[in-house]
């Protein structure tokens, strides 16, 4: 019996009206990742702020920030494809193979 891989598929659009460069997008990824870390710190109470939000509100904030990171990362994929000719689909396949080779994904 063959075990199926579990995927979480997300499709995010190319943003209109922007002309991102590789550098500006990388900086935006870092900014969004910082906002995600801040939200997690708030959830865990490790950032020194008094938590005035419910757990649900904090988890919603974490999800929103995570999606901001994903959107910015997808934007960088568009830049790599359109400006530099990188085949992102091929890179995804190579990434999955790497995960399998390292034993992070096992197909039986």
From TrEMBL:
Pfam families hit by this protein: MazG
Keywords from the named record: Hydrolase
Keyword match Acetylation: no
Source organism superkingdom: Bacteria
Residue stretches making up the NTP pyrophosphohydrolase MazG-like domain: 22-100
GO molecular function: hydrolase activity
InterPro entries recorded: AF0060_NTP-PPase_MazG-like, MazG-like_dom
UniProt keyword Hydrolase, yes or no: yes
Protein name: MazG nucleotide pyrophosphohydrolase
Species of provenance: Peptoclostridium litorale DSM 5388
